[in-house]
TrEMBL record:
Domain of life of the organism encoding this protein: Bacteria
Occurrences of domain FAD-binding PCMH-type (ranges): 1-212
UniProtKB keywords: Oxidoreductase
GO molecular function, one term: FAD binding
SMART domains per record: CO_deh_flav_C (SM01092)
Designated name of the protein: Xanthine dehydrogenase family protein subunit M
Record bears the keyword Kinase: no
Pfam families assigned to the protein according to its UniProt record, in alphabetical order: CO_deh_flav_C, FAD_binding_5
Native source organism of the sequence: Amycolatopsis acidicola
């Protein structure tokens, strides 16, 4: 780790007027600093700022500095969000990591984290060794010739499925952006991962009120039971009336370069009976447009099965 200056601004305004890298839980930033992937000269500890609180009065509002463990345990949090958090990392990390920091965490691609290797996310134009390596863990959706790294966050998948928005603050003012629009596909600029502007700070996550999101879940498939990133995941919410799907929200993780909303699956579910057969038909379009590498083509069928499994959990009451 290289030398840096640590300061702790007392107010949001002071933080926004300062230049440096924001530090909350530090569970990603400190790791990357130790690896020399990130080398900020000034780090701003923002843990003392008033960016806390969970409000479930009308929808769901979560302060950016709320810890993952506290959000997961809150009784008013939609099940898909709570489950996604509980299936993330270890209990110790969930006690430390902030919601805002989790949404900004960097990919776990081994080439990105190894400074001895080229990586277009670290050094644009240097190349992507994951593509010829045919990486098993990499993305099949939203990829480009410059990058195939998956997005690492679990809870971002649930937030995207439920149309969450981010409240952002800067010295120039505040703005709101949908989380699904916040993340950027790699294209030819994989180093630009999101729409966060210089000096801007996430202050709050807002999930619109959706009464039927009480029927929601998050399914995560991984190589081992705990402390592992997703090979594939699915966040699903269903509105079922008279045995038919009136509405649906579906998003996937572990397969895309960003949290991947599946509107074609949602449309295929609407109006159909809530049966395994209709779920199979809807999930059959989940991997449309995918571009697998040599070693991760299995993710196409895995994505379809994971979506079906999540739908069945919500309609059959099974717990996995």
């Amino acid at each position: 780790m290289r030398p840096f200056e640590l300061t702790a601004p007392a107010t949001v305004e002071a933080a926004l007027d300062s230049s440096g890298t924001f530090l909350a839980g530090g569970t990603t930033l400190v790791d990357l600093m130790k690896l020399d992937v990130l080398t900020p000269r000034q780090v701003l500890d923002i843990n003392g700022l008033p960016l806390h609180g969970i409000d479930t009065g009308d929808g769901l509002r979560i302060g950016a500095l709320e810890r993952m463990a506290d959000v997961a345990a809150h009784p008013g949090v939609y099940p898909a969000i709570s489950r996604a958090l509980l299936l993330s990392a270890s209990q110790q990390l969930r006690n430390m990591a902030s919601i805002g920091g989790n949404l900004l965490q960097r990919t776990r691609c081994t080439y990105f984290r190894d400074v001895a290797m080229p990586c277009n996310k670290r050094h644009p134009g240097s190349g992507c060794p994951a593509i010829p390596d045919a990486g098993r863990m990499h993305a099949v959706l939203g990829t480009s010739d410059a990058c195939v790294a998956t997005h690492a966050s679990d809870v971002a998948v649930a937030f995207v499925a439920l149309d969450a928005e981010l409240r952002l603050a800067s010295a120039a003012g505040a703005r709101t952006v949908k989380l699904a629009d916040f993340y950027r596909l790699p294209g030819e600029t994989p180093d630009v991962e999101n729409d966060l502007r210089p000096g801007e700070l996430i202050t709050e996550v807002v999930v619109p009120r959706l009464d039927w999101a009480a029927r929601s879940t998050y399914v995560k498939v991984r190589d081992r039971q705990s402390y592992e990133f997703a090979l594939c995941s699915a966040a699903v919410a269903l509105d079922i009336r008279d045995g038919r799907v009136a509405d649906a929200r579906v998003a996937a993780g572990g397969v895309g370069t960003v949290p991947w909303r599946l509107p074609a699956v949602e449309e295929a579910l609407r109006g159909e009976p809530a049966t395994p057969e209709s779920f199979e038909r809807a999930a059959s379009v989940a991997a449309d447009g995918a571009k697998p590498l040599a070693d991760n083509a299995f993710k196409l069928s895995l994505l379809k099965r994971t979506v079906v499994r999540a739908l069945l959990e919500l309609t059959e009451g099974s717990s996995r």
